[in-house]
Amino acid sequence: MKQEKKVSLISESGSPLISDPGYLLVKTVIKEKLPLTIVPGPSAIISGLQLSGINPNQFMFLGFLPKKENQIVQLINQLYTIKKTFPEMVFVFYESPQRIYRTLQCFKSLEWRSEIVICREMTKKFEEIIRGKAEELLKRNYKGELTVVIQ
């Protein structure tokens, strides 16, 4: 990859990285700051997990988060409780560009310390994978479809 050659990761059964340790390869690619993309399946949930570099062995899909801020805060508190019981649990949800700032602000105000990955416009011309803590991600501009993966 460092020689600008294309490399593919395939799985003999199912979607790569979901039931195998391929996420370790993705983490290395991310660490080396090399380009990464996927050939998508039918689900932004799985594509987001594959691109995140986060261990996907336990994950929970939340759909779109509630629209009201107090409901988001209540949900994040419930996610804290789940993390206490299942420390490896990863959360995946969809968010609109108009609401992502409020959502990130809620995570920041509740001192969520884990990595957040925002997968923007996956499989499209302006695909972008943005990683960081909530406070860092608040400094960005977002457009298009967003899939969020939280460690």
From TrEMBL:
> Which keywords does this Swiss-Prot/TrEMBL entry list?
Cytoplasm, Methyltransferase, rRNA processing, S-adenosyl-L-methionine, Transferase
Highest taxon of the source? Bacteria
Q: Which GO terms describe its molecular function?
A: methyltransferase activity
Q: Which InterPro entries match?
A: 4pyrrol_Mease, 4pyrrol_Methylase_sf, 4pyrrole_Mease_sub1, 4pyrrole_Mease_sub2, rRNA_ssu_MeTfrase_I
Q: Which residues form the Tetrapyrrole methylase domain?
A: 2-137
Picking any one GO biological process from the record gives:
methylation
- SUPFAM superfamilies per UniProt: Tetrapyrrole methylase
Tell me the protein's name.
Tetrapyrrole methylase domain-containing protein
What lineage, starting at the top, does this entry show?
Bacteria, Candidatus Roizmaniibacteriota
